[in-house]
Structures are given as structure tokens and as C-alpha cells.
């Protein structure tokens, strides 16, 4: 029996090889197509936005685990009015800005206020304009403002410049003074304003910031022992390295108030100086006693009587001091006080021994 024809086997082998090669190429093309399809549907990393989740800040806790609470200003006002809490204690606990500031209705250029009471303590502030040769550094009085112990308006007036000294610089960006404020018929003559202010300050304690400048432009004098200058108070000079501090900085650091952000107001500045004095009243009075000693009581109203032997002697009792009408919160410093049946605070009377002539 003869075997298969070698030529036929060779041709079959070739056809098989060709078929296997074609199947292999087909499989390869199908695989490549699947890969390209998957790559097309695969999401890209740039199309996804990553967002960071932020946790809310934890609330501060006390050592006992309870949350801290910050009382509002209205609560502080209730503590003062309803529970008689000292405002100084609130300042120590919650800071200067926690004290509710009283609101005042100001009426410009009214002169004497028709209803507000004077009291013993008066705060003064003045606004000036420039005159003289350039750069017009010479100052003229343009406005005067006075407030009482509680910051209520007592006096406010614009002041006419002297006819022989024209205003060269109104300094409006600082003083707030404009030409219409100093027109005749609206502003008052200097002599009239000077007399009004002198009468108000007579016998009272004067409060202010850099008072020497205000008194110089008013051409007035006041006893140093009766002046409380916030620019000279030792405690207020610590932050400024011993130099006179600016009223604006004192208002911010001591009272938590922002003043003089634009044109100045003499009423606002006087009110701020009085608030600084009220805050440090005990320190101011102690400093005054240290510099000038105890306040002397001035007696008025009675004359000394002569004794039969010709020597002067007191009439048995010293005359009482002419008392000023004190407002709530004001106290006479340096005078021993007692309360009379009528409720008015008066100085206690002291008896003085009579002198007899030696034989």
C-alpha cells in the first residue's frame, strides 16, 4: 500500500498555515478594538472636581465643659440699671466696649442749654481756625463746647473772629468749621462767649484734654488744683512712653470708642474727656491731692464778730460752703460730708473754741 502524496500534504499544510495566520490577525484586530473602546469610555481624572470637606470650628469650652456665652450690650445695660452693678466691674469682666454709651441729642450753637443742669464737673473743648502769615499757624477761637458730668450739652457756640484778624485757614478737615458757621448774626462775639464760659467755670472742676490750649485761645485762667487734664494724667501716659497721648487713642484703648474719624466735634471731644475722667475719677482726685493737698473749703455769707475785748472771734460756728448743685454720681472731694434731713449733702460744721484775752 502506498503512502500519501507528498505534494498533496505540502499544499494542505500551506493552506492550514494560511488559515491559522488569518485567524490570528482577526483575533488581534478584535482585541485592539476592544481596548480602544474601553479607553474611550474610561473617565479622565481632570473631569472630576475634588472638593475638600471642612469641619465647623469647635465652640470654645470651659474647664467644666459648658459653652462660653457673650452677653449682649442690652444685657449689660440691664445689669447696670436693674441689678445696680458697677460699670467698672463690667469693664473689668467684658472690656471697655461692653458699657452702653448714653446717647445725647445735641443742638449746635444754642449757647446755654435751656434744661440740662451744670453740676460740679464741666468738660471743655474748643475748635480753632488759622490766621496769620503762611502756614497760618496762629489760632483763633471758632467754637466752644461744654458738657456736664454725664456728658449732656451745657453750652455750645460758634465764635466770630476779630475784625482785624481774618481767617486764612478754616481747617475744616479737622475742625469741622466752615465759612457759614462764622458769619455775623449766627456766631457770637468773642467777648460774649468768653464771659459766658468764665461764669460757667467759676468754682467748678474743669475737665478736658490739653486744657492749656483751650484756655489760652479763650484768654482765661483756671486754678490748677481744679483742672483734670486727661493728657497729663500719669496712667494715660504709660502707653505713649510718657508723652501726651492723643485723645483718639485714649478713647480707643480706654473706652473702646472710635472718635475723630473725620471732621472733629468739640461736643464729642469734651464728652470723651469727661468719660475718661469718670473712668479714672479716683486716680485723678488722688493725683490732685498728692500735688496740691486737700481741697480748702471756702466759706461765704457771714462776717466775723468782734469780742468785747476788741479781738476778732468766730461766731461759734464756721459758715458753710456755698454748695453747688451736685448731679448723680458727683461727689465733693476733700470735704468731710454729711447728709442733712432734707437729703442735701452739706459739709459738716465744726466748732471752734473762743479765744479769751489773757490778763
Which characteristics define this entry?
single chain, 359 residues, Nucleotidyltransferase, domain 5, two-stranded antiparallel ribbon
Description of the molecule:
With 359 residues, the protein is an alpha+beta fold. Among the domains are: 75-104, no CATH class; 111-292, Ribonuclease H-like superfamily/Ribonuclease H (Nucleotidyltransferase, domain 5). The chain is built from nine helices and ten strands. It has helices at residues 6-41, 73-81, 87-94, 172-175, 190-201, 211-218, 247-255, 266-279, 281-292, and strands at residues 111-112, 121-131, 138-147, 153-158, 205-208, 227-229, 305-306, 312-313, 337-339, 345-347. The strands form three sheets. Strands 1-4-3-2-5-6 form a six-stranded mixed beta sheet, with helices on both faces. The chain has a two-stranded antiparallel ribbon with strand order 7-8. Strand 9 (337-339) and strand 10 (345-347) form a beta hairpin. Helix 7 packs across helix 8 (266-279). Residues 64-74, 302-322 and 334-351 have low confidence and may be disordered.
Question: Topology, pairings included?
Answer:
Layout: H1 6-41, H2 73-81, H3 87-94, E1 111-112, E2 121-131, E3 138-147, E4 153-158, H4 172-175, H5 190-201, E5 205-208, H6 211-218, E6 227-229, H7 247-255, H8 266-279, H9 281-292, E7 305-306, E8 312-313, E9 337-339, E10 345-347
Helix pairs in contact: 7-8
Name the overall outline.
Answer: elongated
CATH class of the domain at 111-292: Alpha Beta
What do the pLDDT scores average to?
76
Got a strand count? 10
Number of helices, counting only DSSP H or I runs of 4 residues or more: 9
Distance between the termini: 192 Å
Looking at CATH, the homologous superfamily of the domain at 111-292 is Ribonuclease H-like superfamily/Ribonuclease H
Give the percentage of residues in beta strands.
5-15%
The description of the largest β-sheet is: 6 strands, mixed
The unreliable regions are: 64-74, 302-322, 334-351
The H-and-E topology, N to C, reads as HHHEEEEHHEHEHHHEEEE
Which secondary-structure class do the elements indicate?
alpha+beta
Would you tell me which CATH topology of the domain at 111-292 applies? Nucleotidyltransferase, domain 5
Based on the structure given, which CATH architecture of the domain at 111-292 is correct?
2-Layer Sandwich
As laid out across the biggest beta sheet, the strand order is 1-4-3-2-5-6
Helix content: 25-40%
Round the Cα radius of gyration to an integer and report it.
Answer: 44 Å
Amino acid at each position: 500500500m502506498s503512502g500519501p502524496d507528498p505534494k498533496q500534504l505540502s499544499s494542505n499544510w500551506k493552506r492550514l498555515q494560511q488559515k491559522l495566520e488569518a485567524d490570528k490577525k482577526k483575533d488581534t484586530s478584535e482585541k485592539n478594538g476592544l481596548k480602544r473602546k474601553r479607553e474611550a469610555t474610561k473617565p479622565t481624572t481632570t473631569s472630576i472636581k475634588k472638593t475638600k470637606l471642612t469641619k465647623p470650628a469647635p465652640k470654645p469650652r470651659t474647664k467644666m465643659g459648658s459653652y462660653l456665652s457673650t452677653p449682649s450690650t442690652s444685657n449689660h445695660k440691664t445689669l447696670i440699671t436693674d441689678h445696680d452693678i458697677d460699670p467698672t466691674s463690667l469693664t473689668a469682666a467684658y472690656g471697655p466696649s461692653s458699657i452702653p454709651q448714653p446717647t445725647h441729642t445735641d443742638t449746635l450753637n444754642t449757647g446755654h442749654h435751656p434744661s440740662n443742669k451744670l453740676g460740679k464737673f464741666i468738660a471743655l473743648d474748643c475748635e480753632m481756625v488759622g490766621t496769620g502769615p503762611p502756614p497760618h499757624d496762629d489760632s483763633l477761637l471758632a467754637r466752644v463746647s461744654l458738657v456736664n458730668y454725664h456728658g449732656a450739652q451745657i453750652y455750645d457756640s460758634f465764635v466770630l473772629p476779630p475784625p482785624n484778624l481774618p481767617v486764612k485757614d478754616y481747617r475744616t478737615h479737622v475742625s469741622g468749621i466752615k465759612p457759614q458757621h462764622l458769619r455775623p448774626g449766627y456766631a457770637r462775639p468773642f467777648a460774649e462767649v468768653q464771659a459766658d464760659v468764665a461764669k460757667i467755670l467759676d468754682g467748678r472742676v474743669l475737665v478736658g484734654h490739653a486744657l492749656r490750649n483751650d484756655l489760652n485761645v479763650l484768654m482765661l485762667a483756671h486754678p490748677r488744683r481744679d483742672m483734670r487734664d486727661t493728657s497729663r494724667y500719669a496712667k494715660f501716659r504709660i502707653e505713649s512712653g510718657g508723652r501726651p497721648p492723643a485723645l483718639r487713642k485714649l478713647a480707643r484703648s480706654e473706652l473702646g470708642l472710635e472718635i475723630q474719624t473725620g471732621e472733629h466735634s468739640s461736643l464729642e471731644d469734651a464728652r470723651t474727656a469727661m468719660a475718661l475722667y469718670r473712668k479714672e475719677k479716683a486716680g485723678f482726685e488722688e493725683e490732685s491731692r498728692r500735688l496740691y493737698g486737700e481741697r480748702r473749703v471756702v466759706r461765704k455769707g457771714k462776717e466775723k464778730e468782734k469780742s468785747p475785748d476788741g479781738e476778732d472771734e468766730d461766731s461759734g460756728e464756721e459758715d458753710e460752703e456755698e454748695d453747688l448743685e451736685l448731679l448723680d454720681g458727683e461727689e465733693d472731694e476733700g470735704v468731710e460730708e454729711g447728709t442733712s434731713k432734707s437729703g442735701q449733702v452739706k459739709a459738716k460744721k465744726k466748732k471752734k473754741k473762743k479765744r479769751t484775752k489773757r490778763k
